[in-house]
Amino acid sequence: METQVPGQARLQHQAEPEGAVAADTRTLVIGPYPVRRGAELPRPAQARLDEAVGLAAAIDLDVVDRLLLGVQAIRPSTYLGKGRVEEIAGRIAAEAVRLVVMDCALSPVQQRNLEKAWGVKVIDRTGLILEIFGRRASTREGTLQVEHAHLAYQRSRLVRSWTHLERQRGGFGFLGGPGETQIEADRRLIQERMTRIERELETVTRTRGLHRQSRRRVPYPVVALVGYTNAGKSTLFNRLTAAEVRAEDMLFATLDPTARAIKLPHGETAILSDTVGFISDLPTMLIAAFRATLEDVIEADILLHVRDIAHEDTEAQGQDVHTVLAELGIEPGAGRIIEVWNKADLLDPPERERLLNLSRTGPSGEAAARPVLLSALTGEGVDRLLARIEARIAESRASFALVLDPAEGAGLHWLYENAEVLDRREDAGGQVHLVVRLAPEKEPRFLNRFGAARRLRAAGG
């Protein structure tokens, strides 16, 4: 019998009402970005603010105003200067704002002082992302991971979203009461709950590990989709697998991982895994919490780094993905990464042609380093991507030539089931001439059965 998460029953009943409350929550989004004299920021401030507004929209907040601020110096008490705080207070009153989203990392003291000065709820970027994850998680694993991350965040603040642990919930924590009573009791209850979650997650991690082991025994190569949130990973996943994974023009539309089998051009089966999108300044606690989910990424044979090539901020987004991959121990230059330039359908013809030519030559002239330009929405370029995946897998596989007598139907069947048949022809005498490619683990069985086969290409050769 499954253990009930505290407040879980209440959360199920409140999910839709909370969405209605959020839609009525008049929200001001503030982008307080440091100004560096003589230094160019890695991402345009307006693009960062637009992303923050998109994050707020992802949980249906009613964004009535946005404000872009250049911050010369960060104040320890309020992040912003006194004059700015007073100016924004007037704006909040005039717009009847009930929630302020600060697109930065606030300390507990800064958050508390801003709430006192403005008389409304204040959340920072980490809090907002946690709220989105709380809304999106649908599996048992995802719910536990989000709750663990939320508890770790709340433990340092004690407490923004609830007055007692029973009121803790994954989404819309900022809509609760001030929660500044029973601090020591709350701290103890938080730690106890986090410990229980960690134990449950260990069980989930072992289960996922068993699933991965069973896949290895099959075995199929694993291809994982990674990329910035809203880059089109789920749309590409649906295109390649004919699945119906949620794909919307919304940040973090996908949170829980999904895996499906796909067929490559010469009949090889691969497992394609869709994963949570990355984002700049992703809270460290979320990377840690979702490490079990991201183990599919860490252990994948091939990573498809999907980029929204039509986005004005595509270079910075790509760098953010590289940063997260590096934190997972995957270097950007790893040979198993294929860069996918998605949303070609949004490009104007000259830019589309320029990028297509660039993808054909690549910066180094090597085929393995070239990106693949495609549109997951229309299907343009998907065949090129499948061929590239197959070619990358083939680099670790040997190929053989062999001849079968017409009566060897069982042997021919075995080859089609266990190998990639690259070429087949019959001579005048009816003998079947084949060129096949095999995974390394299948070579011993192949050579035992077809001892006369001639090796054409060694693995990695």
Offer a concise description of the structure.
The protein is of the alpha/beta class and about 450 residues long. The chain contains 15 helices and 14 strands.
Strands of the widest sheet, in order across it, are: 6-7-5-8-9-10
Mean pLDDT figure: 80
* CATH topology title of the largest domain: Rossmann fold
CATH class of the largest domain: Alpha Beta
Poorly predicted runs are: 1-20, 159-172, 174-181
Summing up helix and strand content along with how strands pair, one would put the structural category as alpha/beta
Q: Cα distance, first to last residue? A: 53 Å
Order of helical and strand elements: HEHEHEHEHHHEHEEHHEHEHEHEHEEHE
CATH superfamily of the largest domain: P-loop containing nucleotide triphosphate hydrolases
Using the 3D structure, state the CATH architecture of the largest domain.
3-Layer(aba) Sandwich
Number of domains: 3
Shape: elongated
Percent of residues in helices: 40-55%
Number of helices: 15
Our estimate of the beta-strand percent is 15-25%
Report on the biggest sheet: 6 strands, mixed
Keywords: Cytoplasm, GTP-binding, Magnesium, Metal-binding, Nucleotide-binding
Protein name: GTPase HflX
Organism: Methylobacterium isbiliense
InterPro entries: G_HFLX_dom, GTP-bd, GTP-bd_M, GTPase_HflX, GTPase_HflX_N, GTPase_HflX_N_sf, HflX_C, P-loop_NTPase
